[in-house]
Amino acid sequence: MDNKGGPGTADKACSAWSRLRGRALSRHRRVGKAAVAIATAAIVGTTGLGSAGAASTPTVNLTWWTMWSGATLQLLNQMVTQFNKTHPGIHVTETNIPSDATTSTAKLLSAIAAGDPPDIFTEWWPEIGSFAANGDLVAMGPYLTGQYAGFTKWEYPVAVQGGTYKGNLYAVPMSLNSWALYYNKGMLKKYGIKSPPKTLAQLDADQAKMWVTSNGRLQQMGFYPDVNGNGFQFYTSFFNATNCFNKAGKYDFEHCPGAQREMNWIASYAKYPYSQVMALQTAVGQVAGGQTDIWTRGLAGFVLSGPWEGAQNVPTSNPGMLGNFGVEAFPGTVPVPSTLGQGNFNIIPKGSAHPQQAFEFIAWLAGYHNEAFVGSIDPKGGWVPAGPSVTKAPAYQAWLKANPWLSGFLPQMTSPYTQAPALTPTQSQLFAAENTATNNVLQKIWTPQRALQYIDQQGNA
Amino acid sequence: MQATDSPPLPSAPPLPRAQRLSPSVHRRHTRAGLLFVSPWVIGFLCFFAYPFFATIYYSFTDFNGVGAAKFIGFTNYVNLFHDPLFRTSLFNTFYYTACELPLSTIAALGLALLLNMKVKGRAIYRTIFYIPSIVPLVASCMIFVWIFNPVSGIVNDLLTSAHLPAPNWFFSIAWSKPSFILLGLWGLGQPMVIYLAGLQGVPREMYEVAALDGAGPWRRLRYITIPMISPVILFNVVLQLVLCISYFTQAQVIENSDIGGPGTSTWFYVQYLYEQAFQFLKLGYSSAMAFFLFVVSGIIMVLLFRSSSRWVYYANEPR
Question: Is the pLDDT of residue A408 over 50?
């Protein structure tokens, strides 16, 4: 500036001082006003002159981490919206995290270690045993009182079994899986097969007619155990081999007759080209649980899958298959229909800020005292509910009536041969080992016995 | 520094008093210096030093990521050597490294030599060969799986039409590792550019003199080019070695639901470490795996650097 000491300097200085003083005064006024407001609020609060409701029932905010995207995420959002609408004291915020088991587990553990976990976390069952064993979960027993006293009796027994570790309930499914044999009607007709297989030998014989290779490349197949990642684990209930323990409580699949029968049956498929089946699976897009698989594309005669296959995958990826498929109980070696009881379980991580309200939300999601709403959502996802009373809901009944192929999925939920894998700290390792064992048997790398030994080694590690 | 017989330089005259820094100024400068380097120091301590020492500590414990770690001595290390999958993953990783490292070095150097030649459209060729390395890794993997799919991929279409055997590539035990090696060769752009920069630093006069002396292209390559760019080769080899030993992303993306498959033919070490840590929550065991890998990598690096004195030529260093 070149007018230092000039005529305008004093004016500017005065004007600057006035501005500063003005700001200071206005700050004093604001502070004064705030003090008056606080005092007024305190008086109103203590004398009960204000709105009593707003002050006494603050909203509890719950965070829910889920692992879905796409159409399923939209259904979950509908459920959250409905819950928030019907429960004014609780507000749930859903956050979608990657579905990869490793990533979601790491994220949850990091959040628990950091002391800021979500209130509810949806987990596919293999991890729950280790979480429970490590003390990372809140046991739900204390909340099973009052209106929730009958909750576990309300659930399917297999749902309780799948969420219980050492006698404590740690997880509640929002939906269960039920597995059965899908068949392609057109292919059965083409190969002169009059009815779907009722025995394992029949399935093996029927599917053998359907394999087509051209120019050294697989074009079509009958049935293959490892398609869609369905390894040893997924067939265990059909062979009564879900929970094979010895007297010491250790895994003992090697000496379990059901497991031996199952692994020998899987090994009988080693005559088919593993590499080509996997390549065909990748070529049609069944990657990371995608909705298109060899069967929905009409390239396989049979597949083991759940209600979502017909309810979601077929309409989405190949509507031409609608009306051209049927479902039968999977023909294992047990005398009655059965299935592997597993599902998508909700858990309350240790450190949850509001475990009571979290349990309330979890029970609501399962359909407890909420049958009508969940009964309208489950059909959209192709889900079997956690409790049988949901299936009585009008919307669910309408869905069953409109899709007769669903009829087999519900009765097998109460079959005495339906079992959930017992929760153990090493279940995740066991599951990975079962997949590795299946792959190695199908590629003739291991004998069935070696494969079962490996499963035991990993499960007991 | 190069040794010389020249007389020592006269020592610099002492600074005049006025120019000497007073202790307070010196302290202020030190504080300012430390302040400037503190972001790096803090980052190093938090993200390198602490995790490194924590890994060593946890490798002697039974720890699941939450709660207290239980000290168990060398149990994790003993268990490592009784774990068949540990051995398999180690073998697969070193198999991949042993094949990928020399192949990628030769291929990248070969490409750089070709692209260093004065040919028309050289810039276009350089761009074309560099482009694959800027394609995101996951996208590259998906493209590879697609074009190498034995049922529907274009590669087997071409092989079949040429009456050549069509392997099952990523889906076969015999071909899965070679497929990953091929995928590794796809992203050669990075080392190729570094080699190219090295080649352009070789003085042309040396080639001219060698040509005058009757040296052919092979001899010029053998006795001029390779020695002159040997520091660049060492740099690239070290870089590639680290990438090979820590091979993870491509395998994880391609195998997806069939981790390590088919069979255990592509069960790589870091994948196994990751699975143990974040799926099975065995953070103690995986820390032992990580520290073991660090020791093995360290030994390899030491051997590599010790051997470099025999084959790496630094112009300013006495031979």
Answer: yes
The shortest C-alpha distance from A10 to chain B (Å) reads: 38
A297 and A188 in one domain? yes
Contacts of B278 in chain A (CB under 8 A): 102-103, 105-106
Report the residue from B171, B263, B279 with minimal CB separation from A102: B279
A80: Cα within 13 Å, side-chain hemisphere: 20
Residues sharing a CB contact under 8 Å with residue B300, sequence separation 6 or more, in sequence order: B241, B245
Residue B133, min C-alpha distance to chain A (Å):
25
- Kindly give the interhelix angle for B84-115 and B230-245, rounded to the nearest 10 degrees: 150
How many domains is chain A partitioned into structurally? 2
Q: What is the pTM of this model?
A: 0.81
User: What residues 151-210 of chain A have any CB closer than 8 A to a CB of chain B?
Assistant: none
Mean pLDDT on B153-177: 92
Q: Which residues of A touch B65 (CB under 8 A)?
A: 109-110, 113
Task: Please tell me which residue, A21 or B7, carries the higher pLDDT value.
Answer: B7
- Does position B6 have pLDDT exceeding 80, yes or no? no
Q: Among A7-11, A22-26, A209-213, name the one with the lowest average pLDDT.
A: A7-11
What is the extent of the structural domain holding B38? 23-75
* CB distance A344 to A124 below 8 Å: yes
What is the rounded (10 degree) CA torsion for B51, B53, B55, B60? Answer: -160
DSSP 8-class letter at A272:
S
A439 and B168: CB-CB below 8 Å?
Answer: no
Contacts of B275 in chain A (CB under 8 A): 102, 432
| Average pLDDT, rounded, for chain A | 86
* Contacts for B141 with CB less than 8 Å, ≥ 6 apart: B183, B249, B250, B253, B254
Nearest to A229 among B257, B274, B280 (CB): B257
* Statement to judge: residues B256 and B166 lie in one domain: yes
The confidence score (pLDDT) of residue A282 equals 86
- What residues does B70 pair with on adjacent strands? B62
| Identity of residue A278 | M
Asked whether the beta carbons of B274 and B293 are under 8 A apart, the reply is no
Q: What mean pLDDT, rounded, does chain B reach?
A: 89
Q: Which residues of B touch A113 (CB under 8 A)?
A: 65-66
Q: Looking at residue A51, what is its pLDDT?
A: 41
Reported confidence tier of residue B11, pLDDT bands at 50, 70, 90:
low
Tell me if chain A has a CB within 8 Å of the CB of B259.
yes
Q: Are B92 and B63 contained in the same domain?
A: no
Give the list of residues 6+ apart from residue A107 with CB closer than 8 angstroms, or none: A65, A97, A98
Q: Rounded distance, CA A419 to CA A125, Å?
A: 13
Of A102, A134, A276, the CB nearest to B67: A134
- B30 lies in a domain? yes
Residue A401 domain boundaries: 58-177+341-414
pLDDT at residue B14 above 50? yes
Judge if ipTM > 0.90: no
> Are B93 and B180 in the same domain?
yes
Q: Which of B56, B75, B94 is the last residue of a domain?
A: B75
Higher-pLDDT residue of A30, A365:
A365
Strand arrangement, sheet containing A342-347: A90-96, A60-66, A120-124, A342-347, A171-177
Whether residues A439 and B150 touch (CB distance < 8 A) is answered with no
- Among A residues 315-374, those touching chain B with beta carbons less than 8 Å apart: 350
